[in-house]
Amino acid sequence: MNNKTRLAALLLGGSLIFSYAPFQQVWLVLPVLVGLLWLTRHASPSGAWRIGYYFGLGWFSAGLSWIYVSIDQFGGLPVPASVGVLAALFLYLSLFPALALYLWKFTERWLGSAAIAMLPLTWLIAESLRGWLFTGFPWLELGYTQTDSWLGNYAPWLGGSGITTVLWAIAICLVMWAQRRQKRFGLMAFVLLIVPFALPWLSPIHNTGEQARVLLVQGNIEQSIKWNPDQHWQSLMTYLDLSRPHYDSHDIIVWPESAVTMPEPYTDDVLTNIHNALVATDTTLITGIIDYQNREYFNTMIVLGQDAPHNIIEPYAHGHTNRYQKHQLLPIGEFVPFEDLLRPLAPLFDLPMSSFSRGDYQQANLRANGFQLAGAICYEIAFPEQVRDNVQTSTDYILTVSNDTWFGASHGPAQHMQIARMRALELGRPLLRATNNGISAVVDPFGNELGRAPQFTATALSTKVNVVTGQTLYHKIGSLGAWLFAGFIALIGVLLRLASYFPNFGVVKRKQNQ
Predict the structure, then answer these.
(1) Where do transmembrane segments lie in this chain (predicted)?
(2) Is 257 annotated as catalytic?
(3) Residue 250: what pLDDT?
(4) Are 72 and 79 in contact (CB under 8 A)?
(5) Active-site residue 173, yes or no?
(6) Per-residue H/E/C for 126-190
(7) Which of left, alpha, beta for 234 (phi over 0: left; psi -120 to 50: alpha)?
(8) pLDDT for 422-467, tens place per residue?
(9) Known catalytic residue: 4?
(10) Catalytic residue among 141, 378, 380, 426
């Protein structure tokens, strides 16, 4: 592989950054995928691996460059060491697109040119590994680029991973059409592009006529002082001052991840007073907090105030069941692998609250004033199967709280918001997202924002949110739809190859019948 090919693969991968939020150039993905296919068309398996690796290096280096903000400001490492840590992450993540292209080309020894039909399946295999290995890092899946395009209408049926498969199928059809000048490939690409326009008409999601008045509170507390013990009471007062004027007029009030920085049970008396005030005004507050139980810390959401429409089912007390404990922890930020080795090396590996324990994978919905909310804290919203497994048919809203203050004015928070919107699209439920300094927003079950609070501002966002009924296909079968679609495309490739081995099979059979 020459330097021009390496550079082309690197630039193709790097250009994908513009297809994600906040740049929103959704059209760019297909030309990039077509370009990657064209670049790899004559490569050997080892050559395809290298092309995929350079493509991944450009893709993740540009797309995840925002991580440097947190490492530089809070990691306590020299600049060369910070760059080295990021480089190690990018080099690791680049293995997965390299694997996908390698597996495609490896199957050419049996399938010949028809092996290109295996690529959606090999890509899905590689991306599934990326989302699982070493607790997983599924950020920047290609499907997220289409959250705001008509192709996003596939999400309730096939999920974000299914959109990725559709993108690859369209790109393959376009390349085959250009190479073979056969109209059937152009027609297949056209059909895949047109079908999603009709899908909203088939949506099983319908309004019930019920709605909740929701307030999302954004405190805008600086990360550099957030965990300072002298800041605990001041931060709590910031959130209370933004919330109390709205107690009487709202059903649900949401504070972001770890808005209460003094852990339970050391704040039980204060939380009980807040609970009583909420009950008196017939409203509910859900807040992020650190829970300390049995010598273990949990990143938690708790419910205070009115948990049912009329009578209190379970008054607040430390350890009450109306809470959600984070399961999918962020490496380094919330747990440190090989911590005995890594913690002494640098402040990066000894950040505040980086020794959390995991909550259960599946947990009961939060009860808030008669509404049911499926919880996800920060990074968890990027794990579609976990969110799906916690959304029940009785779930009214998806609730995610976060603290993206670590990443400043970078494009990271915009990507995070885009990921959260995809969960609303997939599962057909409105989504509430409260963060410390943005992006806080309310999203309808079709992925559209109903309201957004300005970033880097202490404010409260008030929105009426409908309750819906119905269950999307993705909610019923999860990523199985994407696997079946990718498998179907692969099967077509196998059948085309078999047809090339027996070109006269149909003719011979007809003659025998005569």
Answers:
(1) 20-39, 51-71, 83-104, 111-134, 154-178, 185-203, 480-502
(2) yes
(3) 97
(4) yes
(5) no
(6) HHHHHCCHHHCCCCCCHHHHHCCCHHHHHHHHHHHHHHHHHHHHHHHHHHHHHHHCCHHHHHHHH
(7) alpha
(8) 999 999 999 999 999 989 999 999 999 999 999 999 999 999 999 9
(9) no
(10) 378
Contact 220, 434 (CB under 8 A): no
- Determine which one of 257, 264, 380, 426 is catalytic: 257
For residue 291, the SS3 value is strand
Q: Is 183 exposed, middle or buried (0-12, 13-18, 19+ CB in 10 A)?
A: exposed
> Is-contact 60 93, C-beta < 8 A?
yes
3-state secondary structure of 443: strand
Name the nearest CA neighbour of 85 among 372, 276, 342, 260: 342
pLDDT tens column, 475-508: 999 999 999 999 999 999 999 888 877 766 444 4
Residue partners of 499: CB distance under 8 A and separation at least 6? 505
Helix (H, G, I), strand (E, B) or coil at 435: strand
Annotated active-site residue in 326, 334, 380, 426: 326
Please give the domain boundaries of the chain with CATH numbers for all domains.
3-203+475-501 (no CATH), 207-470 (3.60.110.10)
Are residues 305 and 279 in contact, defined by beta-carbon separation less than 8 angstroms?
yes
| Spatial distance between the Cα atoms of 350 and 321, rounded to a whole number of angstroms | 31
Q: Are 342 and 349 in contact (CB under 8 A)?
A: yes
Q: Are strands 206-218 and 459-469 parallel, antiparallel or unpaired?
A: antiparallel
Backbone φ and ψ of 50, nearest 5°: -65, -40
C-alpha span between 205 and 265 (Å, rounded): 41
The owner of tokens 């020794």 is 355
